[in-house]
Design brief:
CATH class: Mainly Beta
Strand order of the largest sheet: 6-5-4-3-2-1-10-9-8-7
Distance between the termini: 80 Å
Oligomer: single chain
Helix content: 10-25%
Number of domains: 1
Length: 178
């Protein structure tokens, strides 16, 4: 009788864990939210933290069998020669979105475990342990306003206890096809 009770309890516990185990196997986070396309050319305008004007052109395309978003930025103003290539995709080993940022000033890696939430994607860097670094962490917030508009904001935290400060904000509008 005791064996039957123990077996029954074990079976019930196993069945109770099935939804929990299934929830642990996360589905891949979408690189781009459903119904939106980054493909094309985008004219962007905004300001830096010091209120200086920032103008740039972004181009977007899906690459690597439509699994990665490639965004290219070319700054027009200020005329520093800044250009960047951002690759955003899902990393199945880490079960999160990652962003590789290669630009004329350096390179960085960002990640998001949540993915797109209410048309906003927050990609955050690891906290830097480097003494004398200009900031401890930074992040990009991509916000989709409508089918032809998105914003990208760069924020920094000067401390490891994250306190975000806006450093750059661009509003981007899809360029009409000619």
């Amino acid at each position: 009788m005791m064996r039957i009770v123990c077996s029954s309890l074990l079976l019930l516990c196993s069945l109770a864990l099935v939804p929990f185990i299934a929830a642990q196997e996360k589905k891949p986070l979408p690189v781009v939210p459903a119904g939106f396309q980054f493909n094309g050319t985008w004219d962007c305008e905004g300001t830096f933290r010091n209120s200086k004007v920032h103008k740039a052109v972004f181009t977007g395309t899906m690459v690597l069998n439509e699994k990665w978003l490639e965004l290219t930025e070319q700054d027009l103003q200020p005329a520093t020669g800044y250009s960047a290539k951002y690759l955003i995709g899902y990393n199945p080993q880490q079960k999160r979105l990652v962003e590789f940022d290669a630009n004329t000033f350096g390179a960085a890696i960002y990640a998001s475990e949540e993915g797109w939430q209410n048309h906003v994607l927050i990609m955050t860097s690891p906290i830097s342990q480097e003494v004398g670094a200009p900031y401890a962490a930074n992040r990009f917030l991509y916000s989709i306003t409508d089918q032809d508009t998105f914003t990208v904001e760069w924020q920094i935290s000067k401390t490891a206890v994250l306190n975000w400060i806006q450093s750059d904000h661009l509003a981007c509008r899809r360029r009409a096809d000619k």
